[in-house]
Amino acid sequence: MTAVYGDGDASFQAAGGQAGIQRLVDRFYDYMDSLPEAAAIRAMHPKDLALTRDKLYCFLCGWLGGEKLFAPKYGPIIIPRAHEHLDIGESERDAWLLCMEKALAEQPYAEDFKAYLMRELFVPAERCRILSQRRIQAEQAEQ
Fold this sequence. Notes:
Blueprint: H1 10-14, H2 17-34, H3 39-42, H4 50-63, H5 70-74, H6 79-82, H7 90-105, H8 111-142
């Protein structure tokens, strides 16, 4: 019987475990640093991305079914709330997804796993956009 992505550690294994996830995260932030389309989202991050890279790596390890590394190191996280303070619209969401799509394209993952990841990553990216837009609307209503 073949494991289904999202069940147990099937996604973690499909991503190549911790080493594969680290390669993905590194390429993702390399694209964020270099793509003109990502300039606005890059500006939302600190100049030194070491901590940011580690946080995404730790999050993805657990999110994909591997060891839960994020909470013991950084505390609990709800992705949309962690990004609520940022101004995220469709273009910012899409730039983040573009960086991930390009990073995924370089990985030796199965094509169906790459497609699965992009579908799954759209969900928190869109939730971040929605929560950010609600905050912006609330701030505008107060004025």
